[in-house]
Amino acid sequence: MLGKVAFIPLVSKIHDENKVKEALRKIEPYVAKYADIKFPKISSISEIEEIPSKNIAAYLIYILTGGVEHLALKLSRRRIPVAIIAHEEQNSLAASLELKARLNYEKIPSEIFMLGSYEFERDLKSFIKASKALFRLRKNPILLIGDPSPWLIYSNMQLNSLARDFDLNYDKVSVEYLINRFKKISRNEIEKLLEKYSIIERKEPSIDDLISSLKLYVAIRDVLRERKIDIFTIRCFDLLDYGLTACLPLSMLNSEGFIGGCEGDILATLSMAILSSISERPSFVGNVVWIERDYVLFAHCMVPLKLTKYFRFRLHFESNKGLSVEGHFTPGETVTFMRIDGVRRILRAGKGVLANEEPIMVNACRTQMLVKVFGDSEKLVKDTIGNHYVLTFGNYIEELKHFAKIINYSFDEV
Prior knowledge:
Elements: E1 4-10, H1 17-34, E2 37-38, H2 45-49, E3 56-63, H3 69-76, E4 82-86, H4 92-105, E5 110-114, H5 120-139, E6 142-145, H6 159-166, E7 170-173, H7 175-183, H8 191-197, H9 207-227, E8 231-234, H10 247-253, E9 259-261, H11 266-279, E10 284-292, E11 295-300, E12 310-314, E13 324-328, E14 334-341, E15 346-354, E16 367-373, H12 379-382, E17 389-393, H13 397-406, E18 410-413
Parallel strand pairs: 1-2, 1-3, 3-4, 4-5, 6-7, 6-8, 8-9, 15-18
Antiparallel strand pairs: 10-11, 10-17, 11-16, 12-13, 14-15, 14-17, 15-16
Helix pairs in contact: 3-4, 5-11, 5-13, 7-9, 9-10
């Protein structure tokens, strides 16, 4: 479900009607472009109380005149992200500054946007994207298939703070439950999938490994559909006890609109959900394998198939079992990478350019992305906030800056 954006113009009961009309005329093109719901001029608390909050991702509060700060404060206390839009006349900016100071004090997410400024539309658009991403996280529970992996010793200590900051709800099934579902999937249920994927190069895995991976994909997909959940993470290393890997199922599901993380890593999965929701593209989660000068090598054994130029199947790196995905890419594409830290309340992000087409290291996970970073790559080591970073193609730094603001996190650009 996509949250809606509501435009709410606030005006004092004492105002110049012609000036107000002119201010509304100036903002109309942006209202038509970005607002889903448009309210008439509002000048009383009773009118504020009639404004809905259900399914609203953001309020665009247009300060038409001074003397409306109390109205905007009343609306903003609903904890829905607020864009305070000021124009150059009628004490609009003066009222906006007073309002913003109070919202800062109450830790209510908000930003001021000055109509007519050079970056007004870019910033407003980024704010709306960020607000809709937060709405998606708050409205969708995360399914845990098994517990988080025990080696995630920093990520796992953040579960309570992440639940608080993002209003997260968790659902859970065991790995054994998934295995029981897997065992019930028949060969007939995957026949069309097998036709499609059997022509993909398999360097080491057998046809039986592919069949098992496709059955596991169907089992996970069916569990997600039944529970009406599209964000999940799986304790995938436990599947090795059954001769299975989740690499291909995760690669497929992340290309189909689901967001699925590895190793039961809730923090990385949440980071994937943020970046994927903002970019409207799937994201890749990678280990930080090595850093040298301004290059960072990220690697993992799954990759959303939509992100690849082409791919082939390999054995899983650490175990030499099952089936994993080796993605190949187009060098030169812009990359955004990010990770959140719920303990330090940081959203860290950086950008760079992809420098490789195929894997460059034998002793690392199968899909590898070598990123030439436009910043201080060594910050990932000198000021570490953990391992798993998520990546996608494109530049989403501005949107992530706005996202950090609306969740009251510091933005830390690499």
